Amino acid sequence: MSAGAVSPAELDARLERVRGRMRDAELTGLVVADPANIYYLSGYNAWSFYTPQILFVPLEGAPVLAMREMDALGAHRTAVRYAEDVLGYPERLVHRPDDHPMAWVAEQLRERGHATPGRVGFEGDAHFFAVRSFLALRDGIPEWDLVESRELVNWVRLVKSDWEIAQMRLAGRVASGAMRAAIDAIEEGRPLNELAAEVMAAQARGVEGADGDYPAIVPMFLYGDGADTPHLTWTAEKFAANSAASIELAGAHRRYHAPLARSVSLGAPSRDLDRLAGATVEGLNAALAELRPGNTPADVTAAWDAVLARYGLEKKSRLGYSIGIGYPPDWGERTVSIRRDDTTELQENMTFHVIAGMWMTGYGFEVSESIRVAPGGADVLTDAPRKLIVKES
Amino acid sequence: MSAGAVSPAELDARLERVRGRMRDAELTGLVVADPANIYYLSGYNAWSFYTPQILFVPLEGAPVLAMREMDALGAHRTAVRYAEDVLGYPERLVHRPDDHPMAWVAEQLRERGHATPGRVGFEGDAHFFAVRSFLALRDGIPEWDLVESRELVNWVRLVKSDWEIAQMRLAGRVASGAMRAAIDAIEEGRPLNELAAEVMAAQARGVEGADGDYPAIVPMFLYGDGADTPHLTWTAEKFAANSAASIELAGAHRRYHAPLARSVSLGAPSRDLDRLAGATVEGLNAALAELRPGNTPADVTAAWDAVLARYGLEKKSRLGYSIGIGYPPDWGERTVSIRRDDTTELQENMTFHVIAGMWMTGYGFEVSESIRVAPGGADVLTDAPRKLIVKES
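Output (structure tokens, whole complex):
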């Protein structure tokens, strides 16, 4: 089922698109630090992003990977490109108050002729490009005029290739299996951390033909009173009869993600929750139908808003965001949001997590799908009953 | 078994220690962004660190939590301190190229009287303090002289309280249970992602009396030829007879971590691996005996080096690092390293992950323990056979 590893030709085409945008932005170089962007361009994939590492992309000539020596020695095991000549900074530079790995990297880039005057982009919102890395490059290569990249590589990632869509379908199958495991595991008296155990096992195991990679975010259980608060992680609290939880999880395959959320009521739901669920699912369905080429996220949000308004409801936060490759702590691409003022023109093979999360006071309801933008409206990659799921208590 | 939540009095004592160091460094304020540091000072704990958030600590007066509005509304569910008046930035500021949440936070801090001239620390190596956050604060509050904090809060975390040691003992029990699950699960033909599934389930489930929290790093399996490369995540490759793997995992409880590594051979090990294992375990034992108050990491490393030298071996990378609270992507504290030139005086209740990882060409061996520095040498928090573990194939 898996389409095999990404081809070198596809990686080269990605690099060409990045360089096209670099020319448009008048950049002579780009410092890529987001591990999702490094993977996208090189294939390099390891849990090494907790120490400084970059891919330096000059406008011409070979990009340069730079990372800790311990990791550099094994970079060839995953990197399809640029692994022949990785810069590995010495172990002694790890966690020093008065020296920094990126100062060493700056010297090495200078030796290789990259310290020439020009506008060089950096990723100002990337999670793993620390301020000290930025300052070390600024001080080490004063010839560079460092400018914020405005998520340049992330925007190149927006429209997926057929190979990428194949990975995301597999990720969707993993997500659907994990959600089935979650729903099956819910029973009275079961602690939330045991539900997490079942979900995480299902996420790593995957399903027949689709093995699971690690998701960028742990499964979330918004339970009981806490169902009004997103992003809380699990506790050992026991699932009680006549209570409800929202479950947020993802399936991952080769770092591609398909998130999926559902709410489950153990026993008959309250009238408030039941009513909220009905309105939210109807709104989501209306939104999904609008996710087709030529529309905008604003159009999609308008369809959602119109349904919710009929029920006297409104959602302040965005209805979704672009997805693809993910590393902790996020599976979003930080580009297109499904919200009222986003006027990006949708194109076929953009992929989104459409998440209708309604967090009321003391209760909440969530239903989401991972989708591909397609001519007939959303091509849904995930598979779970699109409703409030009620289990006998 | 759990000692309950941290007390407000303990949080206040932590704040006082941070302020003592701020006075020593002549800081009038400190911008704390590392989620481990925010948790340490406030108790706030959610998977919200993928969007900008800080705890601003003035030298006097109440610290201020600032985060996305969606998360701010539920901050009181975990924060023991500073949750009464959280600054929640509006949803519209998420992922904008020309506006930034930290610009809004800067305005709010100004309105509250915090934009006064002074030296204000920032965490230059924190993973979740992006360059754009730094630049927005610099531009929004030009009165501040922003200086690198040199891991100020992390250093305060170095010596653990009795409450913290109790959490780490529970984390150690979770780790030991997860390692037993890993060893039990290894068999010929089993894919590595299925081993990961067993480990992750055991990590979340925990053991009797110690429920599992999510570890900051996913389990690692350095398998076959790849056993010479740390930090690779799992694949669906099947465990073969007469092969070996190194397993790196942690147990976590209330965000406190106890990492643990072992190597397992399925079938008789090669002579090279067997010899390497013997030398490494002997070296680790020598190092553990030196982990007592008054010694330094340099003393510990010398004991290790002396054993390895007798076998003609040497380890270039460090032998361990301080541990405690962890969030993805790392469970280390980024302060004391067990290496030749670290002369920090060890004190009782410092806690370390001592990891004797030897990555040779084409094979490797790892054995580690999480320990507390104690008068008689290391008080070991983890429990697994300290040797190369050989299973019948």
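Chain B has a mean pLDDT of 96.
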